[in-house]
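Box 3.1 A note on notation
Throughout this textbook, protein chains are presented in two layers. The first layer is the amino acid sequence; the second is a token string describing backbone geometry. Keep the layers aligned when reading.
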Amino acid sequence: MVFPESNLLLSSLAPGVLALLIPHLKVVELQFGDIIADTNHPIRKVFFPHTGVISLVVEMEVGDMIETAMVGRDGVANAACALDGKVALGKAMVQVAGSASAIDATKFSEIADRNRDLRSLIIRHEQVLFAQAQQSAGCNASHTVEARMCRWLLRMRDLAETDELVLTQEFLAQMLGVQRGSVSLVAGALQRAGFIRYSRGTIKILDAAGLHDVACECYDTVKEHYEKLFRD
């Protein structure tokens, strides 16, 4: 059974628009590490996360993988197919396990083509996602690893809706595009400050307000983009 209220984007749709999607939505489980879109491959499904987090990442030839944006219960993954994007231009992978409402990409495209309100919402969402990617690029170039890590943890906390995040330092370093040693040093400093507790691949946020004080402005900027999406 589909629960549209579990995804903020779905729940923001007018009842008539939502009724067009409901018969074609199916609840699926998102497992950590699942690839839901791969570079230069056709997009098969569109995902509206209920829980869990999907990372949009860029892969480099040397093997590095850097995150450009996150998608959670306030967004949708692979919706660009509704704007005639038949092939994925980047990789999307499940970073935190959860569930989502999924719909066949071709069917979603057909419905969006016939419904101006849905298409308009998707366009605005893709603009917000693009702004998030731009913010990440500026953040990686301008801000300290400490500020970026605090920003990342807060955003992850918002989307996963939990203070306990299961992730390794190696994975976090990969997402931030830094060396593992840098993450280890910053995690140690944040733990000594009483903001987090790190052990055996789990980070527990103890003081979100403290993390916010250290985080760069990018956290609030991205949050404001999404809030504006649902206000307008």
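The longest strand covers residues 53-59. The chain has a mean pLDDT of 90.
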